[in-house]
Write a structure and sequence with these properties.
Layout: H1 2-24, H2 29-65, H3 67-78
Length: about 100
């Protein structure tokens, strides 16, 4: 009977030591929670990057296959005009002056 009590006391002491180690050590619960938060942040960042990659691949397909889209982008970003068109630029306008246009 005494042996059982000693074994029980040792097992309880061992369990308490293990619990304290899990709570207090660098590889314990706090580290687990930090890693879990990091994993969640990386997952969100990956979702954002996946969305950007999808949009860029869609734009690449448009640039390769859609001449109207290419023309729209050239006009918007570079300020080009077609031959015979007149471009009016107002003082508060944020449009760049087209290459070769008269000021």
């Amino acid at each position: 009977m005494l042996v059982k009590k000693i074994l029980l006391a040792l097992s309880v002491l061992l369990n308490l030591t293990l619990i304290a180690y899990l709570l207090m050590s660098d590889k314990g619960v706090s580290n687990y929670q930090t890693l879990k938060a990091d994993t969640h942040a990386f997952t969100e960042q990956q979702d954002v990057l996946d969305e950007k990659a999808y949009l860029l691949s869609h734009e690449i397909r448009l640039l390769q296959n859609d001449s109207e889209y290419v023309e729209k982008i050239i006009r918007k970003r570079l300020g080009f005009v077609k031959c015979g068109e007149i471009l009016y630029i107002f003082p508060d306008s944020k449009i760049k002056v087209p290459v070769g246009a008269r000021e």
